[in-house]
């Protein structure tokens, strides 16, 4: 077990993955994979998550996250209405949305994903701790257009396997890294289109935008020649933050906390993006 040197607690990712395994086992008992797969034909059509990021007039383009709570910050907003927040993001000019589906640690749900899919036209990322193929099928049946894969919790072979299934279902994979070693593992996989650099260290929850800058500086040439779109994730608050990571080479940003906490979400999105573009 990896022990966090600051809090002497087990690594939060380990705790989440342990719990996730039980969750998936329970879901498989309630609805076997074969039965879930049968629901695929009734799933909403896939929208192109990557094209939406690339074609967005905002630089960087915005993936706005529907996030109620997190292990590091607790509850972010009392009057949390996922559909209303998603619609405000859309009206404000987000290119795509990210919807947290983890219940225990982030107070999210697959119902949120389904409901948002009914009321919003933007492509949706299923923000989940994917450890089992089952969750990928579940994401698609709930209307996801993209799925997060976290390099830190998946071995290379599994990553490659999951990527293949995600693409077969017509979705995109956002593959998340935090270190250069993880990025190098991911660059060796086939069919990598979209990489997320998480600025948050999940051992001590510190956030540093230079994580994006450092990784991009070191692997810019390779990322460019592979045609990979880079998303800078977490800890972004101001238009200066957006300019900083855009200049470092990120085409998109993934923002949760700083937008969810606003009283007027639509306005906050608009002003963040406008100022980001002027800078
Ligand atoms: O709320 P923030 O600091 O803007 O971060 C959003 C997003 O990057 C963060 O929620 C996140 C990044 N990677 C994750 C993996 C799982 C759950 C959540 C995340």
Describe this structure in words.
The protein is of the alpha/beta class. Helix 4 (82-92) crosses helix 5 (110-119) and helix 10 crosses helix 12 (265-278). The termini are far apart. It is built from 12 helices and 10 strands. Helix 7 links the parallel strand 6 (146-150) and strand 7 (172-177). The protein has helices at 12-30, 33-38, 49-55, 82-92, 110-119, 133-141, 156-168, 180-187, 210-225, 239-248, 257-260, 265-278, and strands at 61-66, 69-70, 74-75, 96-100, 124-127, 146-150, 172-177, 194-198, 229-233, 252-255. The structure holds indole-3-glycerol phosphate. Indole-3-glycerol phosphate binds next to strand 10 and helix 11. Indole-3-glycerol phosphate (IGP) binds next to strand 10 and helix 11. One of its GO terms (biological process) is L-tryptophan biosynthetic process.
**Rg calc:** 18 Å
**Overall number of strands:** 10
What is the multimeric organization of the chains shown? single chain
Class inferred from helices and paired strands: alpha/beta
The major beta sheet can be summarized as: 8 strands, parallel, barrel
Q: What share of residues are in beta strands?
A: 15-25%
**Spans of 5+ residues with little confidence (pLDDT < 50)?**
none
Order of helices and strands: HHHEEEHEHEHEHEHEHEHEHH
Helix content: 40-55%
Q: Report the bound ligands by name, code or SMILES.
A: indole-3-glycerol phosphate
How widely separated are the two ends?
45 Å
Round the mean pLDDT to the nearest integer and report it. Answer: 95
Number of helices: 12
The side-by-side strand order for the widest beta sheet comes to 1-4-5-6-7-8-9-10
Q: What overall geometry do the principal axes of the alpha carbons give?
A: globular
């Amino acid at each position: 077990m990896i022990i966090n040197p600051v809090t002497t607690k087990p690594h939060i990712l380990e705790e989440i993955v342990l719990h996730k395994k039980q969750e998936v086992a329970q879901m498989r008992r309630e609805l076997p994979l074969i039965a879930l797969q049968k629901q695929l034909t009734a799933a909403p059509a896939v929208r192109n998550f990557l094209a939406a990021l690339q074609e967005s007039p905002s630089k960087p383009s915005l993936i706005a996250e529907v996030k109620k709570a997190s292990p590091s910050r607790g509850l972010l907003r009392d009057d949390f209405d996922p559909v209303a927040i998603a619609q405000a993001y859309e009206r404000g000019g987000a290119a795509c949305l990210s919807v947290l589906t983890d219940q225990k640690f982030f107070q999210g749900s697959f119902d949120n994903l389904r409901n948002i899919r009914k009321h919003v036209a933007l492509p949706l990322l299923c923000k989940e701790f994917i450890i089992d193929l089952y969750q990928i099928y579940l994401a698609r049946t709930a209307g996801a257009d993209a799925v997060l894969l976290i390099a830190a919790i998946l071995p290379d072979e599994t990553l490659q396997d999951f990527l293949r299934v995600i693409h077969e279902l017509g979705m995109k994979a956002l593959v998340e890294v935090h270190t250069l070693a993880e990025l190098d593992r991911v660059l060796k996989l086939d069919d990598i289109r979209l990489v997320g650099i998480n600025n948050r260290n999940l051992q001590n929850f510190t956030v540093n935008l230079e994580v994006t800058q450092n990784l991009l500086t070191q692997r810019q040439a390779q990322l460019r020649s592979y045609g990979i779109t880079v998303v800078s994730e977490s800890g972004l608050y101001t238009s200066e933050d957006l300019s900083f990571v855009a200049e470092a080479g990120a085409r998109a940003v993934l923002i949760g906390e700083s937008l969810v906490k606003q009283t007027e979400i639509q306005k906050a999105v608009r002003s963040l993006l406008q100022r980001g573009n002027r800078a």
